[in-house]
Amino acid sequence: MLIRIQPAPFELAALLDGFGAGAGAIVTFSGIVRDDTGQMVALELEHYPGMTEKSVTAIAEQAQARWNLTDLAVIHRYGRLSVGEAIMCVATAARHRAEAFEAAEYLMDYLKSRAPFWKREIGPDGPGDWVEAKAADEDALNRWD
Amino acid sequence: MKLDVLYFAWIRERIGEPREEIETGAETVRDLVSQLVARGERYEAALSEVKSYRVAVDQELVDFDHRLDHAREVAFFPPMTGG
């Protein structure tokens, strides 16, 4: 299991080198900074050092307990990230694809609403609004009860 | 008791500090919130609407009735937007 919380960019290909030995299926998800309004140049991600590492590790351990994974990785960045840059990725490895897909979705649902990160939009004139959490993201957790 | 109180995102901006040490006799998170809100405008703007934010005690998410008996660190922050 690999968990990294870092400001620096990461290489997905490097992460996958040797990842999930013996797996029959590897699923990866990457989150990319997108510009919905045409007015955004970057995202600023604030986080809670200490709690971030603890909560992401706890979420990953829950996924491992729930599915039969041969490997799991989460990289999540913070700081200022330009439009088009990767914010984060998860990778899951399992014998069969259903487990790998489900575990990846579970990780994403929990990282969105339970890992202490806060996004703010940066426009051409500087910092703009904080991104508001969506009720749908909170509701998405219920399907795992 | 002395608590490290941390603020993040728009709560940090409204209060104007990322963290401070607070001397308190608060028994629960709710008591601590009342004590902070009574400090004045900045705190009221940040913390009076309890439905709009979350709280963690010693880096674990808790509800507002959580007891502060052995707490060292309390953090207030908006609903998370990770991923």
Structure write-up:
- The complex is a heterodimer of chains A (145) and B (83).
- In chain A, helix 2 runs antiparallel to helix 3 (97-114).
- Chain A is 31% helix and 37% strand.
- Chain A has one domain (2-129): Molybdopterin biosynthesis MoaE subunit (Aldehyde Oxidoreductase, domain 3, Alpha-Beta Complex).
- Chain A is built from four helices and eight strands.
- In chain A, a hairpin with a 2-residue loop joins strand 7 and strand 8 (126-130).
- The longest helix of chain A is centred in the C-terminal third of the chain and has 18 residues, at 97-114.
- The two termini of chain A are 24 Å apart.
- The model of chain B has no long low-confidence stretch (mean pLDDT 97).
- Chain B is globular, with a radius of gyration of 12 Å.
- In chain B, helix 1 (9-15) runs antiparallel to helix 3 (41-47).
- Chain B has one domain (2-77): Ubiquitin-like (UB roll) (Roll).
- Chain B has 83 residues and is an alpha+beta fold.
- Chain B is built from three helices and five strands.
- In chain B, strands 2-1-5-3-4 form a five-stranded mixed sheet.
- Chain A binds chain B through residues 31, 46, 48, 50-51, 54-55, 76, 87-88, 108, 111-120, 130-133, 138, and chain B through 6, 8-10, 56, 59, 61, 75, 77-83.
- Chain B: This is Molybdopterin synthase sulfur carrier subunit.
- Chain B: InterPro entries: Beta-grasp_dom_sf, MoaD_arc-typ, MOCS2A, Mopterin_synth/thiamin_S_b, ThiS/MoaD-like.
- Chain B: One of its GO terms (biological process) is Mo-molybdopterin cofactor biosynthetic process.
End-to-end C-alpha gap of chain B:
36 Å
| Most extensive interface | A-B, 26 and 15 residues
Give the full name of the CATH homologous superfamily of chain B: Beta-grasp domain
Listing every helix as H and every strand as E from the N terminus to the C terminus, the arrangement of chain A reads EHEEHEEEHEEH
- The portion of residues forming beta strands of chain A comes to 35-45%
Assembly level? heterodimer
Number of strands of chain B: 5
Q: Helical region count of chain A?
A: 4
- The best one-word shape of chain A is globular
| Biggest beta sheet summary of chain B | 5 strands, mixed
Q: How many strands in all of chain A? A: 8
Write down the domain tally of chain B. 1
The secondary-structure class of chain A comes to: alpha+beta
Alpha carbon gap, first and last residue of chain A? 24 Å
Strand content of chain B: 25-35%
Sheet of most strands of chain A: 4 strands, mixed
Shape of chain B: globular
Overall pLDDT metric of chain A: 96
CATH architecture of chain B: Roll
- Under CATH, the topology of chain A can be stated as Aldehyde Oxidoreductase, domain 3
Low-confidence stretches of chain A: none
